[in-house]
Design a protein that fits this description.
The structure is a homotetramer of 355-residue chains.
Chain A (H helix, E strand, L loop, with lengths): L6 E6 L3 H13 L3 E7 L3 H8 L6 E2 L3 H6 L5 E4 L6 H10 L4 E3 L7 H14 L4 E3 L7 H11 L6 E9 L9 H20 L3 E7 L15 E7 L4 E7 L7 E8 L2 E5 L6 E3 L4 E5 L4 H23 L11 H20 L2 E3 L5 H4 L12
Parallel strand pairs in A: 1-2, 1-4, 2-3, 4-5, 5-6, 7-10
Antiparallel strand pairs in A: 7-11, 8-9, 8-15, 9-10, 11-12
Helix pairs in contact in A: 1-8, 4-5, 5-9, 7-9
Catalytic activity (chains A, B, C, D): myo-inositol + NAD(+) = scyllo-inosose + NADH + H(+)
GO molecular function, one term (chains A, B, C, D): nucleotide binding
Family (chains A, B, C, D): Belongs to the Gfo/Idh/MocA family.
Chain lengths: 355, 355, 355, 355
């Protein structure tokens, strides 16, 4: 694959997220185009494919991965399918950008990380797009420059206006808390050692059996603590707020001030970002553009990742799995992770970061 | 009058503002009590007097000023009555706190300033309460400490939700713009040399004949400029915002952030202060407490002012009068003021300020 | 005591807080004056007394309580002395405004609550001044009006720039967390059933042995949860932030926006309130004014409280005591409180509130 | 030119802005690539060209326009060169995206608008990138949805930290105020009829002869008024703030809140966007992407504009020219514009807007 040819991408799963990625690759970033589209629903695949006239429709995801004029794969299928499909990409030697989570159990994620390490070449990038968000990048820079002193405590808020009816308490951890888990690892630069999931009075707007909100406490290797409010039926908007408190000061992102209006009698205010695409659109664009560049630069034999990799996917999965146990047992659960050196002898000790 | 006896105050005019002053003197500050209440409406006087059982009701304002057990007078009568009543106080040798404006023409204010100067004793304080507001004080300190460098430009916004039906374009200048005129003199520390009143498209919510909003440009002695939006039928709330721009930076007060709510779907925001009593309650309390302390300290022969005085009242009146001419002629009008030394030979050149 | 005579107050303990109360009573509020000052340091008492010329100096606090021309007592002595002195006030039938905490163990507070209940007359008010702060009052109103729906979770931040060298981990709970405990009871209107004190990596600026920051989790009777960051060596400023999250939305106070400056190259921002007197000065004024009014209205036989009372002091003490055990054992501790009906048969079930 | 082939773009002028456009076209948007680079400095052209290996270097701008495999031209040359080069593009039938201003006198801009109208095909787009900025778009939507009622007054602030030494008072109008002129036409949807340039005390940081800050007043056809502070040696940061005040409320953009830090003792705040590329990077990306799409859709015979066109460039130039006269004469100057129908009989009366 020469540097001047566009990267040919298969997009697997074209729901809201996947369809947005198709549009992103074809219209909003450079250097890539979608050549294969795959979805469990042939109707949905055809609908999305209509706007991407060059793309071939392939029903079976594993066939889609194998298509010859596919250089790389973007996985936006349901979470439960990620592990097997990502592993297939690694086995086929094809770079893959896998939406979070990498797997819905720690074992599945670990197998991918191990297989990639055996190959000696980084092929798996995980879609933790906040690492590409300008506000998160600024917060990370502030911490790394030592302007907050040693970080000690972190406060996170993650609210969605609503979730689909089938969403249960465990899904909240695998799909929402997982972002805060990666943000913790990214911002604080160390692994998470324990997790406690607390259960405040549930909202009456949450479906039967859904524990919402949840209050999650993370503890890192060196003893820093993170509290997370995750509330997915808040009814208000999409709100993501992160505050890091260090020895020398604190910093917060996510106050969501943009246009401020003073129209209603006696009221001032603005609009809360309605959803994740609006809030993190720029981050998704940067993530996919940088992944495309990395894959093109990696060519057929080099590393193909510029962002969180398989180990980050595994680490998040291990913490989520412990979170599920905490949710079930009401206890603090210590996170059970294999030492990184047993997966990749050459790995740095700290969490992977964008280079 | 010994230092331990309460100051006996006559309150003239007990509409919204005057009644609030009665409550303030009797319940919210120390060292004073209301001994005389006067109002054109006997019914209103009785109503307010009921909550101030020690106070005597006196219908005629000039008799009220003359009552023997009145040490000082607080004037909250209609603006047009201020000049004559304040002059009566000066002539009776009684300290007076006069709500703004000191007079509704420059001549009336000048006469008071001259008469006071002849007495050689400061008795007249004008109710520019912003000089006692913590945010204004902080902005003033920042400027005086040189942290903005030389001030060059100032932006003011002054909005009321609504005004009484009889309010006309000139009243807006005498009652609302007058605050911005004093704020300019207070914050920038110099006199205003010219005023231009511009007439943007009027709001359809403004009564026939009321120019609203108005856009006012002030020019100071040294050439600094101030733009003022005054909009008294905004329908939204009471909003006062002031930004000073200097050679080394800018500073703004009045953003009105307090409680921030995120309740309505997709909206965040807060409540705009509903009116001037809520916004400047603390300032009124400080103003009256400090005036009471100054009058008690001044005793029967010393100065009885701790705040803007007669000259400040005159300066504001002169600028307002020029503003009215600008409103009528659509022209830039140079302000016509007598030199301060012709009124009071010992006066400092700069605008008076709280000591 | 007639309604027109000033309330005669003894102030016990005239450190920073007590001296400020002396100034408040004599200069900033109406209806009261300080007639007795008492302090362990005769020198300090004389110094503060110099500005309150009418006040008599009495060394022994119990003698000071007993002085005949003392109508009521304001306790600002060290925390450890509160319980015995407050009890002496109750036994002498004198109203007392006791700075928080009411006692430094739950038993001491309970004894006071019981003794007051036996008298059948409320004499004890506790200095939880946030209940008088306008922002807290607005947040309370919003909750009570149902605008947030049922409250589910609350986030609190309490930071001081620094503490005296002798401050230990338990003192942080009795002196700082106690405010959040009362704020929880005030805002959510129910008792706290369990407390967990977590220990994040301590700041290197904290003295040896001081666990700082602490992360505290409260659980209320109905299962609502509160997370509290308390960080008393933050080095930055005095920051108090409270967010309540309900079924229908959230609201936050304490963002501390006032004057916004843009002076340093590339930076905008404002000033953090330097300390509790600046942040809560208005609240202290309202608290003492309303207490004075309540005592004057209560006369010699009625209730003399307008604010948090002895039961509130006991409830806070019981939670603090449980917090100390959590700090020692690293465990979640259930709060051990006697039923309110065993103290006062007529009591409402919910926490006391200002009427 | 088929829809699937990339648009081949010549970039003329590769200073800061032009080089950024080269990078944008080749790396940040899709559907286009740079095939020709031209700059007065051969060295600079070579330097920028090194990162765009496919591009041919052509010294003469008119030759560059004429190169056969150039489908469209992006003009980022010095302002004085725009008119002649844009005209050459029109005459060659090549679509052009011309950085603002379209010309440095009204006549030059008018000639381009006339020539384009004769062709009967829209080829000229002007680089008023704010029309593509999300905050400006949201403000525009709010106005158009009637949520502010009829707009009456608008307040603009435009600050740069510094300007090159050669920048004079007129350049400030042609390069900075021109943005506010177009923002006024875009947001209020009507032409500007008069301009007054006021001269406050100049900053001592402004070079000899540079009037800075300037206070500019615009009046629209229907009498709305706009005040503009333009201050290009503010020393602080790049600050663009716009507030529209209507009959039913107001709205403001540009408060520049993102990451909020509390690190310095006693200070809270954030970072001001350092420059226009950081502030409006997203807007430039959208602008160029949409222009590329429009040119590709227009093919060889249709309109090739999706954004402000030649008439917008002319209108801005006419107001700027009047502004220069106001700057020279200290007077209010009425804007002299030819009726739009004399240029293009089919034109809508209102200002052009993105479709």
């Amino acid at each position: 694959m020469s540097d001047t040819r566009d990267l040919r991408v298969a997009v697997l799963g074209v729901g809201v997220m996947g369809a947005d990625h198709v549009d992103r690759i074809n219209r909003r970033i450079s250097g890539a185009r979608v050549t294969v589209i795959s979805d469990a629903s042939a109707e949905r695949a055809a609908e999305v494919g209509a706007s991407a006239s060059d793309a071939q429709l392939v029903t079976d995801p594993f066939e889609a991965i194998a298509v010859e004029d596919v250089d790389a794969v973007l996985l936006a299928t349901p979470s439960a399918a990620h592990a097997e499909q990502a592993l297939a990409c690694v086995n086929a030697g094809k770079p893959v950008l896998c939406e979070k989570p990498l797997a819905t159990d720690a074992e599945g994620a670990l197998e991918i990380a191990r297989r990639e390490a055996e190959l000696g070449r980084r092929l798996v990038q995980v879609g933790f797009m906040r690492r590409f968000d300008h506000e998160h990048e600024r917060l990370k820079s502030l911490i790394d420059a030592g302007e907050l002193g040693q970080p000690l405590v972190m406060h996170c808020v993650h609210r969605n206006p609503a979730v689909p009816p089938r969403c249960d308490s465990a899904t909240v951890i695998w799909n929402s808390v997982v972002h805060e888990i990666d943000a913790t690892r990214y911002l604080l630069g160390e692994e998470i050692m324990a997790i406690t999931v607390l259960r405040p009075t549930p909202s009456s707007h949450a479906a039967e059996g859904l524990q919402d909100p949840q209050l999650v406490i993370l503890e890192t290797e060196t003893g820093r603590m993170v509290d997370i409010e995750v509330f997915v039926t808040s009814g208000v908007g999409y709100e993501v707020r992160t505050e890091v408190v260090g020895e020398r000061g604190s910093a917060m992102i996510g106050l969501d001030v943009g246009l401020v209006r003073r129209t209603d009698p006696g009221r001032w205010g603005g609009q809360i970002t309605p959803g994740f695409l609006e809030r993190f659109g720029q981050a998704y664009d940067s993530e996919v553009q940088r992944w495309v560049d990395a894959v093109r630069a990696g060519g057929g034999s080099g590393d193909c990742v510029d962002g969180p990799g398989a180990w980050d996917g595994y680490a998040a999965a291990a913490v989520c799995a412990a979170g599920i146990r905490s949710l079930e047992t009401w206890d603090r659960i210590e996170v059970d992770m294999v030492p990184r050196s047993t997966v990749d002898a050459s790995a740095r000790v700290e969490p992977e970061q964008s280079e």
